[in-house]
Specification:
single chain, alpha+beta, 3-stranded antiparallel β-sheet, globular
Length: 340
Protein backbone atom coordinates (compact mmCIF):
# COMPACT_ATOMS: atom_id res chain seq x y z
CA UNK A 1 0.00 0.00 0.00
CA UNK A 2 1.31 3.46 -0.86
CA UNK A 3 1.66 6.12 1.80
CA UNK A 4 0.66 9.72 1.14
CA UNK A 5 0.85 13.02 3.01
CA UNK A 6 -0.29 16.61 2.47
CA UNK A 7 2.11 19.32 1.33
CA UNK A 8 1.32 22.23 3.64
CA UNK A 9 2.33 24.97 1.20
CA UNK A 10 0.24 23.75 -1.74
CA UNK A 11 -2.38 21.52 -0.12
CA UNK A 12 -1.72 18.77 -2.65
CA UNK A 13 -1.51 15.06 -1.90
CA UNK A 14 2.02 13.65 -2.27
CA UNK A 15 3.03 9.97 -2.46
CA UNK A 16 6.02 9.30 -0.24
CA UNK A 17 8.99 7.29 -1.42
CA UNK A 18 9.62 5.14 1.65
CA UNK A 19 13.25 4.16 2.22
CA UNK A 20 14.02 0.41 2.33
CA UNK A 21 10.28 -0.22 2.53
CA UNK A 22 10.41 -3.89 1.53
CA UNK A 23 13.18 -4.62 4.02
CA UNK A 24 11.39 -2.83 6.88
CA UNK A 25 8.07 -4.49 6.05
CA UNK A 26 9.71 -7.94 6.02
CA UNK A 27 11.51 -7.24 9.30
CA UNK A 28 8.43 -6.06 11.18
CA UNK A 29 5.80 -8.33 9.68
CA UNK A 30 7.78 -11.55 9.21
CA UNK A 31 10.97 -11.74 11.28
CA UNK A 32 9.48 -10.07 14.35
CA UNK A 33 7.30 -13.14 14.96
CA UNK A 34 9.19 -15.96 13.21
CA UNK A 35 12.73 -15.06 14.37
CA UNK A 36 12.38 -12.82 17.45
CA UNK A 37 16.06 -13.18 18.41
CA UNK A 38 17.17 -11.87 14.99
CA UNK A 39 14.59 -9.07 15.24
CA UNK A 40 15.93 -7.96 18.62
CA UNK A 41 19.48 -8.01 17.32
CA UNK A 42 18.68 -5.94 14.22
CA UNK A 43 16.91 -3.27 16.29
CA UNK A 44 19.65 -3.06 18.91
CA UNK A 45 21.73 0.09 19.30
CA UNK A 46 24.96 -1.72 18.30
CA UNK A 47 23.53 -2.94 14.97
CA UNK A 48 21.91 0.45 14.37
CA UNK A 49 25.35 2.09 14.74
CA UNK A 50 26.83 -0.41 12.28
CA UNK A 51 24.07 0.12 9.70
CA UNK A 52 24.53 3.88 10.01
CA UNK A 53 28.27 3.54 9.41
CA UNK A 54 27.82 1.31 6.36
CA UNK A 55 25.18 3.59 4.84
CA UNK A 56 26.54 7.05 5.68
CA UNK A 57 30.30 6.67 6.10
CA UNK A 58 31.53 3.78 3.95
CA UNK A 59 30.92 5.36 0.54
CA UNK A 60 33.02 5.91 -2.57
CA UNK A 61 32.91 9.20 -4.56
CA UNK A 62 30.72 7.55 -7.23
CA UNK A 63 28.21 6.66 -4.54
CA UNK A 64 28.23 10.25 -3.32
CA UNK A 65 27.31 11.48 -6.81
CA UNK A 66 24.34 9.11 -6.80
CA UNK A 67 23.42 10.39 -3.34
CA UNK A 68 23.42 13.98 -4.62
CA UNK A 69 21.16 12.99 -7.52
CA UNK A 70 18.90 11.10 -5.14
CA UNK A 71 18.51 14.16 -2.89
CA UNK A 72 17.87 16.34 -5.93
CA UNK A 73 15.09 13.97 -7.02
CA UNK A 74 13.52 14.30 -3.57
CA UNK A 75 13.53 18.09 -3.79
CA UNK A 76 16.30 18.71 -1.25
CA UNK A 77 17.68 22.20 -1.80
CA UNK A 78 21.39 21.92 -1.00
CA UNK A 79 21.73 25.63 -1.82
CA UNK A 80 20.15 26.30 1.60
CA UNK A 81 23.28 24.94 3.27
CA UNK A 82 25.68 27.09 5.24
CA UNK A 83 28.64 25.13 3.83
CA UNK A 84 29.40 25.26 0.10
CA UNK A 85 28.28 22.22 -1.87
CA UNK A 86 31.90 21.17 -2.48
CA UNK A 87 32.38 20.77 1.27
CA UNK A 88 29.62 18.12 1.51
CA UNK A 89 31.81 15.16 0.55
CA UNK A 90 30.12 12.28 2.37
CA UNK A 91 26.51 11.19 2.89
CA UNK A 92 26.96 11.86 6.62
CA UNK A 93 28.00 15.46 5.94
CA UNK A 94 24.92 15.90 3.75
CA UNK A 95 22.71 14.35 6.41
CA UNK A 96 24.15 16.57 9.16
CA UNK A 97 24.07 19.72 7.04
CA UNK A 98 23.43 23.12 8.55
CA UNK A 99 21.09 25.49 6.71
CA UNK A 100 20.57 29.26 6.73
CA UNK A 101 17.36 28.82 8.70
CA UNK A 102 17.23 32.53 9.53
CA UNK A 103 16.62 33.10 5.79
CA UNK A 104 14.90 29.96 4.50
CA UNK A 105 12.81 28.98 7.54
CA UNK A 106 10.99 32.16 8.61
CA UNK A 107 9.31 32.21 12.00
CA UNK A 108 6.05 33.97 13.02
CA UNK A 109 6.52 37.19 14.96
CA UNK A 110 3.71 36.48 17.45
CA UNK A 111 5.29 35.51 20.76
CA UNK A 112 2.46 33.14 21.75
CA UNK A 113 2.91 30.79 18.76
CA UNK A 114 4.47 27.35 19.19
CA UNK A 115 6.60 26.49 16.16
CA UNK A 116 7.53 23.19 14.55
CA UNK A 117 10.72 21.68 16.02
CA UNK A 118 11.76 20.03 12.75
CA UNK A 119 11.39 19.65 9.02
CA UNK A 120 9.07 16.66 9.26
CA UNK A 121 5.67 15.10 8.68
CA UNK A 122 3.34 15.78 11.58
CA UNK A 123 0.31 14.14 13.20
CA UNK A 124 -1.67 15.61 16.08
CA UNK A 125 -3.17 13.78 19.03
CA UNK A 126 -4.58 13.98 22.52
CA UNK A 127 -4.18 11.96 25.69
CA UNK A 128 -7.72 12.84 26.81
CA UNK A 129 -10.27 10.17 25.93
CA UNK A 130 -13.07 12.68 25.35
CA UNK A 131 -10.97 14.61 22.81
CA UNK A 132 -11.60 13.89 19.12
CA UNK A 133 -7.83 13.55 18.58
CA UNK A 134 -7.57 10.74 21.14
CA UNK A 135 -5.78 7.67 19.78
CA UNK A 136 -5.43 5.04 22.47
CA UNK A 137 -1.72 4.34 22.91
CA UNK A 138 -0.86 3.54 19.29
CA UNK A 139 2.39 5.48 19.01
CA UNK A 140 3.58 5.30 22.63
CA UNK A 141 2.58 4.20 26.12
CA UNK A 142 2.27 7.52 27.92
CA UNK A 143 3.02 5.84 31.26
CA UNK A 144 6.39 4.63 29.88
CA UNK A 145 7.42 7.71 27.93
CA UNK A 146 9.45 9.39 30.70
CA UNK A 147 11.04 6.16 31.91
CA UNK A 148 11.14 5.15 35.56
CA UNK A 149 13.25 8.04 36.82
CA UNK A 150 10.93 10.97 36.01
CA UNK A 151 7.41 9.67 36.53
CA UNK A 152 6.42 12.93 38.23
CA UNK A 153 5.92 14.44 34.75
CA UNK A 154 3.03 12.07 34.06
CA UNK A 155 0.72 14.20 36.21
CA UNK A 156 1.81 17.40 34.43
CA UNK A 157 0.93 16.13 30.95
CA UNK A 158 -1.98 13.82 31.77
CA UNK A 159 -4.89 14.38 29.35
CA UNK A 160 -2.81 16.91 27.41
CA UNK A 161 -2.22 17.21 23.67
CA UNK A 162 0.71 15.99 21.60
CA UNK A 163 2.25 16.43 18.16
CA UNK A 164 4.26 13.68 16.50
CA UNK A 165 6.96 14.61 13.96
CA UNK A 166 8.45 11.97 11.64
CA UNK A 167 11.78 12.98 10.09
CA UNK A 168 12.63 11.06 6.92
CA UNK A 169 16.29 10.50 5.91
CA UNK A 170 16.44 13.29 3.31
CA UNK A 171 15.26 15.95 5.80
CA UNK A 172 17.32 18.60 7.55
CA UNK A 173 18.06 16.79 10.83
CA UNK A 174 18.66 19.55 13.34
CA UNK A 175 15.83 20.01 15.82
CA UNK A 176 14.92 23.52 16.99
CA UNK A 177 13.29 24.78 20.15
CA UNK A 178 9.50 25.03 19.63
CA UNK A 179 8.98 27.47 22.51
CA UNK A 180 10.84 29.99 24.63
CA UNK A 181 11.26 29.24 28.30
CA UNK A 182 13.35 27.82 31.11
CA UNK A 183 14.68 24.27 30.99
CA UNK A 184 13.20 22.50 34.00
CA UNK A 185 14.43 18.98 33.28
CA UNK A 186 16.64 17.20 30.74
CA UNK A 187 17.47 13.48 30.72
CA UNK A 188 18.09 10.36 28.64
CA UNK A 189 15.93 7.22 28.59
CA UNK A 190 17.52 4.02 27.28
CA UNK A 191 15.91 1.74 24.70
CA UNK A 192 16.05 0.17 21.25
CA UNK A 193 16.32 1.60 17.73
CA UNK A 194 13.09 0.64 15.94
CA UNK A 195 12.35 2.08 12.51
CA UNK A 196 9.86 4.94 12.18
CA UNK A 197 8.58 3.75 8.79
CA UNK A 198 4.72 3.93 8.95
CA UNK A 199 4.45 0.15 8.42
CA UNK A 200 6.82 -0.51 11.32
CA UNK A 201 4.95 1.92 13.56
CA UNK A 202 1.63 0.21 12.81
CA UNK A 203 3.05 -3.30 13.19
CA UNK A 204 4.88 -2.66 16.47
CA UNK A 205 2.57 -1.24 19.12
CA UNK A 206 3.83 1.91 20.88
CA UNK A 207 7.37 1.89 19.41
CA UNK A 208 8.27 5.42 20.52
CA UNK A 209 8.16 4.56 24.22
CA UNK A 210 10.44 1.56 23.51
CA UNK A 211 13.17 3.48 21.67
CA UNK A 212 16.12 5.34 23.15
CA UNK A 213 15.13 9.00 23.65
CA UNK A 214 16.15 12.34 25.11
CA UNK A 215 13.55 14.28 27.09
CA UNK A 216 13.61 18.04 27.67
CA UNK A 217 10.90 19.76 29.74
CA UNK A 218 10.58 23.53 29.28
CA UNK A 219 8.58 25.84 31.54
CA UNK A 220 7.21 28.59 29.29
CA UNK A 221 5.29 30.45 32.03
CA UNK A 222 8.26 32.65 32.87
CA UNK A 223 9.47 36.13 31.84
CA UNK A 224 10.14 36.07 28.11
CA UNK A 225 8.49 32.64 27.72
CA UNK A 226 5.82 31.58 25.22
CA UNK A 227 3.21 31.25 27.97
CA UNK A 228 1.78 27.80 27.15
CA UNK A 229 2.68 25.97 30.35
CA UNK A 230 5.14 23.11 30.44
CA UNK A 231 6.21 21.61 27.12
CA UNK A 232 8.03 18.28 26.86
CA UNK A 233 10.21 17.77 23.77
CA UNK A 234 11.11 14.11 23.30
CA UNK A 235 13.70 13.26 20.63
CA UNK A 236 13.42 9.58 19.71
CA UNK A 237 16.11 7.59 17.89
CA UNK A 238 15.29 5.13 15.11
CA UNK A 239 17.00 2.62 12.87
CA UNK A 240 20.50 3.81 11.81
CA UNK A 241 20.45 6.70 14.29
CA UNK A 242 23.77 6.70 16.08
CA UNK A 243 23.19 9.50 18.56
CA UNK A 244 21.22 12.59 19.53
CA UNK A 245 23.73 15.35 20.20
CA UNK A 246 22.48 18.35 22.15
CA UNK A 247 23.95 21.52 20.66
CA UNK A 248 21.80 24.53 21.53
CA UNK A 249 22.93 27.79 19.91
CA UNK A 250 21.42 31.18 20.67
CA UNK A 251 22.73 32.62 17.38
CA UNK A 252 23.03 30.68 14.10
CA UNK A 253 25.05 27.55 14.98
CA UNK A 254 27.64 29.42 17.01
CA UNK A 255 28.96 28.25 20.41
CA UNK A 256 26.79 25.09 20.67
CA UNK A 257 26.28 23.74 24.17
CA UNK A 258 24.31 21.12 26.04
CA UNK A 259 21.15 21.85 27.98
CA UNK A 260 21.14 22.35 31.74
CA UNK A 261 18.33 22.98 34.25
CA UNK A 262 17.42 26.68 34.67
CA UNK A 263 18.93 27.55 31.28
CA UNK A 264 16.71 29.87 29.21
CA UNK A 265 16.15 28.84 25.59
CA UNK A 266 14.84 31.08 22.83
CA UNK A 267 12.16 29.86 20.43
CA UNK A 268 13.27 28.64 17.01
CA UNK A 269 16.97 28.08 17.79
CA UNK A 270 18.98 24.92 16.95
CA UNK A 271 18.70 22.48 19.85
CA UNK A 272 20.05 19.08 18.79
CA UNK A 273 21.05 16.94 15.84
CA UNK A 274 20.20 13.34 15.01
CA UNK A 275 23.26 11.44 13.78
CA UNK A 276 22.07 9.96 11.31
CA UNK A 277 18.95 8.16 9.83
CA UNK A 278 15.21 8.63 10.20
CA UNK A 279 13.88 9.72 13.57
CA UNK A 280 10.93 11.12 15.53
CA UNK A 281 10.17 14.09 17.78
CA UNK A 282 7.22 14.19 20.17
CA UNK A 283 5.90 17.39 21.75
CA UNK A 284 3.66 17.08 24.82
CA UNK A 285 1.53 19.96 26.11
CA UNK A 286 -0.44 20.48 29.28
CA UNK A 287 -4.19 20.14 28.93
CA UNK A 288 -6.04 23.13 27.41
CA UNK A 289 -2.92 25.24 26.96
CA UNK A 290 -2.55 25.22 23.14
CA UNK A 291 -4.73 25.28 20.03
CA UNK A 292 -3.34 23.50 16.98
CA UNK A 293 -3.24 25.29 13.60
CA UNK A 294 -6.57 24.76 11.75
CA UNK A 295 -4.93 23.64 8.49
CA UNK A 296 -3.04 20.85 10.25
CA UNK A 297 -6.29 19.64 11.83
CA UNK A 298 -8.14 19.74 8.51
CA UNK A 299 -5.35 17.89 6.69
CA UNK A 300 -5.37 15.07 9.24
CA UNK A 301 -8.95 14.23 8.33
CA UNK A 302 -8.67 14.39 4.57
CA UNK A 303 -10.08 11.30 2.87
CA UNK A 304 -8.37 11.85 -0.50
CA UNK A 305 -4.96 10.69 0.81
CA UNK A 306 -3.97 7.04 1.32
CA UNK A 307 -2.21 6.88 4.69
CA UNK A 308 -0.84 3.67 6.20
CA UNK A 309 -1.67 5.12 9.61
CA UNK A 310 -5.33 5.46 8.58
CA UNK A 311 -5.45 1.86 7.41
CA UNK A 312 -3.49 0.44 10.33
CA UNK A 313 -5.34 2.33 13.07
CA UNK A 314 -8.74 2.31 11.30
CA UNK A 315 -9.33 6.03 11.48
CA UNK A 316 -8.33 8.91 9.24
CA UNK A 317 -4.78 9.97 10.14
CA UNK A 318 -3.01 11.89 7.37
CA UNK A 319 0.33 13.62 7.94
CA UNK A 320 1.22 17.15 6.84
CA UNK A 321 4.70 18.02 5.64
CA UNK A 322 5.77 20.91 7.89
CA UNK A 323 8.86 23.12 7.99
CA UNK A 324 10.91 23.81 11.08
CA UNK A 325 10.01 27.13 12.80
CA UNK A 326 6.63 27.33 11.02
CA UNK A 327 3.42 27.72 13.10
CA UNK A 328 2.20 24.60 14.89
CA UNK A 329 -0.11 25.94 17.60
CA UNK A 330 -1.01 29.09 19.49
CA UNK A 331 -1.68 29.82 23.11
CA UNK A 332 -5.19 28.87 24.17
CA UNK A 333 -6.74 31.71 26.07
CA UNK A 334 -8.62 30.74 29.25
CA UNK A 335 -12.43 30.98 29.06
CA UNK A 336 -13.86 34.30 30.26
CA UNK A 337 -14.69 34.47 33.93
CA UNK A 338 -18.40 34.82 34.60
CA UNK A 339 -19.57 36.85 37.56
CA UNK A 340 -22.91 36.43 39.28
Amino acid sequence: MEHQFIDRDTGRVVTERLFADRIVTALYHRHRESTPRLFRALTSRRVSHLLGFLHYDLHLPASLKRHHRFLHDLGVDLNECVAPLAALRTPRQIFERQIRYWECRPMPEEADVVVSPADARVLLGSLAEENRFFVKEKFFHFSELFGDQRRQWLDTFADGDYALFRLTPEKYHYTHTPVAGRVEDHFLVGGDCHACNPSATVALATPFSKNRRTVTVIDTDCPGGTGVGHVAMIEVVALMIGDIRQCYSSHAYQFPRGLLPDMFVTRGQPKAIFRPGSSTVILLFERDRVRFAPDLIANMHRVDAASRFSRGFRRTMVETDIRVRSPLACRREPPPTTHP
